């Protein structure tokens, strides 16, 4: 066990029975601003663009699989 009462067993970590692992610290200061508006930390334009790119990539993958399937079916028809 180390100073935080956590034991390592290979890639598994365990806490001993009855050991306290809760670490609490008090905040240095708190501040509440009346009438303030918190902005989102997400750029919606970038996220929507990324989603469109991902969707188009998935559509291209589906189309290539359909094309390969069609070519394989044509090959089987020629062989038969």
From TrEMBL:
One GO location term (cellular component): bacterial-type flagellum basal body
One Gene Ontology biological process: bacterial-type flagellum-dependent swarming motility
InterPro entries documented for this protein: Flg_bb/hook_C_dom (IPR010930)
UniProt KW Secreted keyword: no
Compartment(s): Bacterial flagellum basal body
Domain of life of the native organism: Bacteria
Keywords associated with the record: Bacterial flagellum
Principal cellular location given in the protein's record: other
Ranges for domain Flagellar basal-body/hook protein C-terminal: 34-77
Pfam families: Flg_bbr_C
SUPFAM superfamilies xref list: Phase 1 flagellin (SSF64518)
Record-stated family: Belongs to the flagella basal body rod proteins family.
Protein name, as recorded: Flagellar basal-body/hook protein C-terminal domain-containing protein
